[in-house]
Structure prediction request, 540 residues.
Amino acid sequence: MEAFQLLSRGGARFHKQRFKSDVQLFTHAVTKPEKSVNAPVNQDSTLPPELDFFKYAQGGRAKRKAGNTDPSSSSAPSRPDVRSKRRKTNHETEDFDGNEDDGDDAPEGDALRERVRVTAKGSNVPPPIEVFDDLLDRFKIPHRLMSNLMDNHYKYPTGRRDLAAISPTGTGKTLSYLFPIMSLLGAPISSLKGTEGSGVRAILLAPTRELAHQIYNECLKLAVRRKWRVVLYSKATASTLRDKNARDKVDIVISTPLRLVASIQEGNLDLNNVRHLVLDEADRLLDSEFLAQVQEVISACTHPEIQKAVFSATLPAGAEQLAMGILRNPIRIVVGLKDTPLPLISQTVTYVADDASKLPSLLTYFAQPYNPPLLIFTSTQPRATSLAEELTLNGIANVDCLHAGMTKKERDDAVSRMRRGESWVMVSTEVMARGMDFKGVREVINYDFPTSVQSYIHRIGRTGRAGRDGKAVTYFTDEDAPYLKSIANVLLQSGSSVPDWILKLPKPSKLKKKQMGKIKRAETVNAARKIGRNDAIKKR
DNA sequence: AAAAAAC
Prediction:
């Protein structure tokens, strides 16, 4: 399977004239690299602003610890300061390796990858493309697909290669797998007269219904004016596909894992013709609650030529190991730095003492002018519901709520209101944390402290998308103290500043964390007793 | 370390 790389995607507005001049600039910079060596020009200035996801990176990137766990850095003889690496050209890097070449023999694409901070590993990694037109030269891209892409205002390709792709939030991962898949499938199965077997050829998995739906919408945009059958898998669509003839006309299925597993077990779905399997938000799909389901889907995909790909902005070591076990001879691509948010997002943390002080703080915030729409995260469903009610009672306009305890219709309606710009304040749980792309969101508030670094990175990644900047505020209480430092490190790595005293916090020992847990539990039990909820105690 | 999400 031919693999290729996309480099970056632009936002919603598209001016053909501007696009042209940007492309010329871009190409110029690549064909004459020696100029950029001598000239003290920041190479990044040749990037169109939408593409420069790291434009505010100066401060923070250098602070990343030398001993970071990113394996992509291990090939360097010593770890140079990130800031100087950023200005370093391909030539300089080679001198560093003792290579006397003037760079002309460097593997094609290395300079480009360096400039856009993409690292690629694996055998026979094809050179990246830098504009979509390069695809036409190197691959057989159906014309309709290409023109549908242009009609949808995609400006630049983004980092992608089949198999393991790690790229920050809002950098265009969805397109980077949809486009190659649709291109490689070539034509809808209904027009192929059996040459490609029968049955669905691509499965896209996502951890939430909302995300699956969003991927579906993106997919439909690329399928305009072609007879693709793209199915957003649900109870309803599953039942229309009980008939094998109907099933054989389907090209792409987008689903959450459990829905798919249910159909497989009922014998109402066969995945033996699947050529492309994508795990979006892979680390989430590979964590313990989803793992068995995902493995069942994978083992149902029996076609020998299947290409599997995992995508996420975060991939902790455990998840990566699982992923590597699933993938065959994978290429691993990292855009920017793994497990690090974009410097486009300016992050702050706010001390609020205890839970009771959170609402007053938030209301103070709302007393000042703010930039809707706003996304607020809470730790539980009831807290999301009650905070939304509380805000409405306090006169905040157009407050909405979304969590998985609501009905499908309620959830769908909430997302549509958000998409139409009718929600100004959306209070939500982890459901909204990953993948969701609401273009206008300029600010995220973590009302409740996130339960992991990954959760933090994904939550704040709802803003700062497609090259726009964003703001993220995180409330923390005394109880959150043991986890504060790990989040503070994330802020530092991505260019936001952190008060000194937080950095001086001792690294919490496992014992201390345990004690905090016990205190928390005791408090909860006491609170439950007070309101006579003994059932709540038993549950725990 | 822990809630949420998946049917």
Notes: The radius of gyration of chain A is 24 Å. The longest strand of chain A covers residues 345-351. Residues 132-335 of chain A form a domain with the Rossmann fold fold (CATH 3.40.50.300).
